[in-house]
């Protein structure tokens, strides 16, 4: 298919662009296969706007006489408006945008066409390999092994080719366990707590069904992670009720009788359309232009967004608490183990593991616990807050995770190497990107699409010093401790950097940020100067002493 | 009273055992056991209510709510003791004479001269000079020299130059409580001014020539503008109701060239109830997000804060952008008027955003113009209907502005919180009584100390590291976004949940940056020394041992004191399930846990005089209690071993 077929009017003049915080400008609008490009005609200070079609969540058209107006709502929550003279042109452009923003073939997406303009220092596709992760692990324990059982994605389609499992469990047993778990997602290692050797595993629900099926190998596998005489916790991210209902569909939960060394805790984390609706309502509230204070708070409340944040954080804290404070191992699962499970396991690691609070470590966490763990990004992030599709697959699971990270970052502003911008950047790229990183739903699909060969990795771009400097937190001081966030409602706030980004001018806050950076930069400069002088003095003094001695 | 338990508000299972003492000025709770004595001091004047609850098996619970939003829950073993404590506290918390207040016995060991210097720190006539009055348009009037015209006004009042004593007296007779229009803020750049008064006694049709002349004179004192805004900060309905009582508002037809404007700020009773409702929300034990947000909205508190801000923004805009003078009043002109005038001044003039300027502002718009501190904050036993968080709301407005303009204020959040604390503490004489007249009669300046001197002495603790006098954000008028940015107004947990340290960010950016700045200063000094030495060395090539040792001393001082920055903590109760987990090894006994809890509790207790020192101490204690090897502070008291299965299933 040629993109040209979809573009009936590639260019329109005298278009007025309205966007947040800027006065309207007039200019020329161009459509290409992947971008909507607007450039103002002014010679002196030409303004340009490049918008990826894949960033467009929904569009609306309106007509007043022959002047058409297109309102474009983006996945990054921005809203822009284009006034296009000429009804036909406007209609053509609207229908082109609509078609181009909803291409159904992944291989037509921009990452397959994007050619980087920067020098690639490090191939991001090879930055975070499971072998490296395992190497780190084997330096502290030899109880685990790397299994290649899923090499051809034959055992579990949503798992990566290699996974870390207890050494004592062989591949044959794993195959049996896979049969007993939803989507074949057998329990694998998610995190090893060096301090006390406790571990966190994740999986999907066991397929016990109504007649209480059991699987000896499954029991053996998870018991293999316990120390003699110790118990573990199973954190089920569904309410007991939901878990019980799952039995009717062949799913279920671990029965006490068959897992006597494990205590099960149910923590209800919502999924799918409940989350999607929550996001839609929240963004609606944030965009509400009414002057009424009460309406704002009740709309914020009604969106339930912060309630979801609180639930997810609480479950993650609980998992971390079991591991660090109770000295117990933990298994986390919900139904499929691809959504709420990953929220809990990845947040628990941020709480427990200082490495995950560095830029590199956080990237590695996203790769391990989200991309390789098979969170279906393509389905979940197909639409954002302005979608009106009733598709069941969309849900801001990853955005909620990022929001939770932001909440912890806000409570521990000096313990993270990255800043808020880093999280916002990940949010944007998860929904629309020139990079291939977040395409596909799992490693299997990514390998079939040959993404590493055909597209550029986000990490190749981010991990260059020019980019990294934007994402560094000036206040960072390595903190090797476990950080326990507060989950009280008073401690949780709306993430303004994302949700009010286009409604609230941030000039003064940006200035504060700059001031902060300059205070710290000046301090570092002085430190360097003082050190240099000290060295110089020391040298001179030794010279002198030597002369004296002579 | 011994064997008293101090309960933790966040977790019913953490409690500290100790001894309760009542002194003439404080309630003191001293914890047993722990090496460093953990003490909680509460001033009697901070107590807002005491509640005796139904006796339980463990003892008799006593709930003390404080005006600085601390809530203390005690359990006293004997009913009798509890009753005695209750009765004593009720008496002690409600003194009937000013002389009983703490400030008359508080002695910070300063001599007479220092005390006098302290009171001179804030000088209002200097402030009016700074604004640029008296000048061609404004004069100082001595008409109220002996409080003869208005007993709640200061002796020195600024009025338009063309106004005679006759006009002032005439106008005062036409205004509630004789609070005639007087200057609050004058803008040198464009001659526009903010004046304040009480409501006119206009009823349905009354007029007063002198009052009309007064307003005309105010308008003419600003030659650049041909009209004057009259802002009535009450809801229109309230103002109209006042007409029936012979009071009311200005009729535009009777006054030449005024523009009349209502700005609906609710009265003190509505505000009192609103705060009450919000505090109930803050006190909820483990509320859900919905409980909290719903309760916050239902209290209406942020709506009221926004109304006050909107009024201030309107006035600041009129003065700065339109160059029009404004007369502000409400009913008596000492509550809403004070709020609105001070918010507007703060927006208009960068000086009021400095530490000293902020003290001046409170002294000018609140203390001198007869805001009834004693009645509003219940310093002496009085009518509970007079109590209302009027200045608290102003302080919150300042905080909301600090959140929007992080570089614009010289002071930090702690400064505001400590001022709020001392408005209620009665430790210093500044906020005693209801008017300047009463304070002079009591000889406050000779018998008590000034808070401003105390704060000024410790100003290093109150600095905002992001403030720079030459920063663009610091300059000129602040222009906050008005509606529709409702989301700009946020719940201030630093104030209303001040004593629940566990709810706040665990690392303070302010403290971190202050430490960096301090180090920077040391580095600058060292750099200077080093350069000097280098120059000397190059010159003389002589080895100076003295300087060398000095340098080594210095290098020891360097290095950030990271202790403040890496505060960690203990987990909250994330789940009720864990409490009944039967696998707890007996070695993790109660002793270890409770020791940890003791440290915790102390963090949440108040430091009596709020000196910065004790703040820092608690920071250090924070560190001591977060040692990762600590036994954890998971609940251990419950003996629900038998029912654990049920509990798991129930969740």
UniProtKB/TrEMBL annotation, chain A:
Ranges where the Myotubularin phosphatase domain occurs: 124-499
UniProt KW keywords: Acetylation, Cell membrane, Cell projection, Coiled coil, Cytoplasm, Endoplasmic reticulum, Membrane
An annotated Gene Ontology molecular function: protein phosphatase binding
Chief localisation class: membrane
Keyword rRNA-binding: no
Sections of the chain in a coiled coil: 509-550
Transmembrane spans: none
A cellular-component GO term for this protein: cytosol
Signal peptide annotation: none
Cell location: Cell projection, Ruffle membrane; Cytoplasm, Perinuclear region; Endoplasmic reticulum
The keyword Protease is annotated on this UniProt entry: no
Source domain of life: Eukaryota
GO terms (BP aspect): negative regulation of autophagy; phosphatidylinositol dephosphorylation
Membrane topology note: Peripheral membrane protein
Homology family: Belongs to the protein-tyrosine phosphatase family. Non-receptor class myotubularin subfamily.
Listed name of the protein: Myotubularin-related protein 9
Species: Dromas ardeola
Phylogenetic lineage: Eukaryota, Metazoa, Chordata, Craniata, Vertebrata
TrEMBL record, chain B:
Residue intervals of the Tyrosine specific protein phosphatases domain: 299-343
Annotated residues for binding of substrate: 267-268, 330-336
Residues of the Myotubularin phosphatase domain: 118-496
Active site per database record: 330
Annotated protein name in UniProt: MTMR7 protein
SUPFAM superfamilies: (Phosphotyrosine protein) phosphatases II, PH domain-like
Organism: Dromas ardeola
Localization annotation: Cytoplasm; Endomembrane system
Region: Disordered, residue numbers: 541-651
Entry keywords, A to Z: Coiled coil, Cytoplasm, Hydrolase, Lipid metabolism
UniProt cross-references to SMART domains, sorted A to Z: PTPc_motif (SM00404)
């Amino acid at each position: 298919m040629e993109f040209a077929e979809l573009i009936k009017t590639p260019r329109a003049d005298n278009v007025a662009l309205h966007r947040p915080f800027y006065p309207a400008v007039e200019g020329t609008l161009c459509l290409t296969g992947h971008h909507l490009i607007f450039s103002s005609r002014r010679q002196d200070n030409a303004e340009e706007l490049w918008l990826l079609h894949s960033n467009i969540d929904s569009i609306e058209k309106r007509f007043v006489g022959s002047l058409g107006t297109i309102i474009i709502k983006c996945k990054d929550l921005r809203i822009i408006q284009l006034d296009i003279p000429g009804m036909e042109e406007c209609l053509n452009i609207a229908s082109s945008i609509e078609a181009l923003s909803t291409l159904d073939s992944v291989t037509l997406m921009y990452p397959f066409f994007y050619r980087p303009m920067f020098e690639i220092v490090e191939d991001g596709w090879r930055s975070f390999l499971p072998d490296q992760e395992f190497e780190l692990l084997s330096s502290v324990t030899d109880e685990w092994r790397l299994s290649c059982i899923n090499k051809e994605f034959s055992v579990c389609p949503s798992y990566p080719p290699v996974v870390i499992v207890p050494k004592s469990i062989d591949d044959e047993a794993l195959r049996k366990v896979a049969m007993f778990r939803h989507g074949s997602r057998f329990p694998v290692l998610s995190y090893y707590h060096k301090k006390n050797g406790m571990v966190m595993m994740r999986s999907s629900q066991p397929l016990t069904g109504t007649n209480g099926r059991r699987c000896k190998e499954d029991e053996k596998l998870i018991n293999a992670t316990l120390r003699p005489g110790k118990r573990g916790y199973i954190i089920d991210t569904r309410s007991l009720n939901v878990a019980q209902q799952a039995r009717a569909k062949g799913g279920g939960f671990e029965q006490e009788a068959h897992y006597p060394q494990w205590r099960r805790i149910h923590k209800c984390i919502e999924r799918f359309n409940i989350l999607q609706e929550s996001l839609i309502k929240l963004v609606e509230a944030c965009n509400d232009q009414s002057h009424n204070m009460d309406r704002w708070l009740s709309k914020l409340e009604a969106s339930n967004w912060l309630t979801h944040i609180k639930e997810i954080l609480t479950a993650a804290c609980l998992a971390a608490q079991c591991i660090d404070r109770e000295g117990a191992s933990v298994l986390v699962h919900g139904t499929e183990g691809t959504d709420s499970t990953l929220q809990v396991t990845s947040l628990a690691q941020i709480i427990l593991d200082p490495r995950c609070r560095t830029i590199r470590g956080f990237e590695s966490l996203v790769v391990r616990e989200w991309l390789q763990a098979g969170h279906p990004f393509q389905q979940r992030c197909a639409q954002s807050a302005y979608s009106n599709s009733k598709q069941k697959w969309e849900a801001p699971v990853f955005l909620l995770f990022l929001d939770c990270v932001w909440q912890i970052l806000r409570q521990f502003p000096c313990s993270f190497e990255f800043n808020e911008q880093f999280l916002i950047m990940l949010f944007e790229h998860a929904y629309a990107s020139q990079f291939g990183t977040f395409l596909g739903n799992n490693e299997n699909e990514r390998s079939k699409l040959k993404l590493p060969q055909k597209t550029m990795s986000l990490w190749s771009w981010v991990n260059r010093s020019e980019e990294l400097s934007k994402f560094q937190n000036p206040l960072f001081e390595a903190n090797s401790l476990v950080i326990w966030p507060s989950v009280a409602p008073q401690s949780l706030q709306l993430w303004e950097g994302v949700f009010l980004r286009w409604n609230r001018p941030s000039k003064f806050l940006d200035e504060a940020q700059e001031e902060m950076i300059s205070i710290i930069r000046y301090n570092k400069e002085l430190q360097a100067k003082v050190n240099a002088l000290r060295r110089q003095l020391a040298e001179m003094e030794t010279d002198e002493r030597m002369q004296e001695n002579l | 009273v011994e064997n008293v338990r101090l309960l933790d508000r966040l977790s019913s299972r953490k409690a500290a055992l100790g001894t309760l003492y009542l002194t003439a000025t404080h309630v003191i709770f001293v914890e047993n056991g722990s090496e460093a004595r953990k003490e909680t001091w509460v001033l009697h004047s901070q107590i807002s209510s005491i509640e005796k609850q139904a006796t339980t098996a463990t003892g008799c619970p006593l709930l003390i709510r404080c005006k600085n939003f601390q809530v203390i829950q005690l359990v006293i073993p004997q009913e009798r003791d509890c009753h005695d404590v209750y009765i004593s506290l009720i008496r002690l918390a409600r003194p009937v004479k000013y002389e009983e207040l703490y400030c008359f016995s508080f002695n910070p060991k300063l001599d007479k001269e220092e005390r006098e210097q302290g009171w001179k720190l804030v000088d209002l006539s200097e402030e009016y000079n700074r604004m640029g009055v008296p000048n061609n348009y404004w004069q100082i009037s001595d008409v109220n020299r002996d409080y003869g015209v208005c007993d709640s006004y200061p002796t020195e009042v600024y009025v338009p130059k063309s106004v005679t004593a006759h006009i002032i007296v005439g106008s005062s007779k036409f205004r509630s409580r004789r609070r005639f229009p007087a200057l609050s803020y004058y803008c040198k750049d464009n001659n526009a001014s903010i004046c304040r008064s009480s409501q006119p006694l206009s009823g349905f049709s009354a007029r007063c020539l002198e009052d009309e002349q007064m307003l005309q004179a105010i308008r003419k004192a600003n030659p650049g503008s041909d009209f004057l805004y009259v802002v009535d900060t009450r809801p229109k309905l309230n103002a109209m109701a006042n007409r029936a009582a012979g009071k009311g508002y200005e009729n535009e037809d009777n006054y030449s060239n005024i523009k009349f404007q209502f700005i609906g700020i609710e009265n003190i009773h509505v505000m009192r109830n609103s705060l009450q409702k919000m505090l109930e929300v803050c006190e909820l034990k483990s509320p859900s997000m919905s409980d909290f947000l719903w309760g916050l909205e239902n209290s209406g508190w942020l709506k009221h804060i926004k109304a006050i801000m909107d009024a201030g923004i309107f006035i600041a805009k009129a003065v700065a952008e339109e160059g029009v003078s404004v007369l502000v009043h409400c009913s008596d002109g000492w509550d809403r008027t004070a709020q609105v005038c001070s918010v507007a001044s703060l927006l208009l003039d960068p000086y009021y955003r400095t530490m000293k300027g902020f003290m001046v502002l409170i002294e000018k718009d609140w203390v001198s113009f007869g805001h009834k501190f004693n009645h509003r904050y219940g310093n002496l036993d009085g009518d509970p209907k007079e109590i209302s968080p009027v200045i608290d709301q102003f302080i919150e407005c300042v905080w909301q502005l600090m959140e929007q303009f992080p570089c614009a204020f010289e002071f930090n959040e702690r400064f505001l919180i400590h001022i709020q604390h001392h408005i209620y503490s009665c430790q210093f004489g500044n906020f005693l009584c209801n008017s300047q007249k009463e304070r002079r009669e009591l000889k406050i300046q000779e018998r008590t100390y000034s808070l401003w001197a105390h704060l000024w002495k410790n100003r290093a603790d109150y600095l905002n590291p992001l403030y720079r006098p030459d920063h663009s954000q610091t300059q000129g008028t602040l222009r906050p976004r008005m509606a529709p940015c409702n989301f700009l107004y946020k719940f201030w947990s630093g104030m209303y949940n001040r004593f629940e340290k566990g709810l706040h960010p665990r690392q303070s950016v302010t403290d971190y940056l202050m430490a960096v700045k301090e180090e920077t200063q040391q580095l600058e000094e060292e750099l200077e020394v080093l350069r000097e030495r280098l120059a000397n060395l190059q010159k003389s090539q002589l080895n100076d041992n003295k300087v060398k040792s000095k340098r080594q001393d210095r290098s020891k001082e360097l290095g950030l004191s990271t202790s403040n920055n890496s505060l960690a903590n203990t987990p909250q109760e994330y789940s009720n399930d864990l409490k009944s987990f039967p696998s707890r090894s007996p070695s993790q006994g109660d002793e270890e846990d409770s020791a940890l809890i003791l440290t915790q509790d102390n963090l949440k207790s108040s430091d009596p005089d709020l000196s910065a020192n004790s703040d820092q101490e608690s920071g250090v204690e924070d560190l001591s209690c977060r040692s990762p090897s600590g036994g954890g502070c998971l609940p251990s008291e419950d003996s629900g071993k038998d029912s654990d299965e049920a509990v798991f299933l129930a969740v």
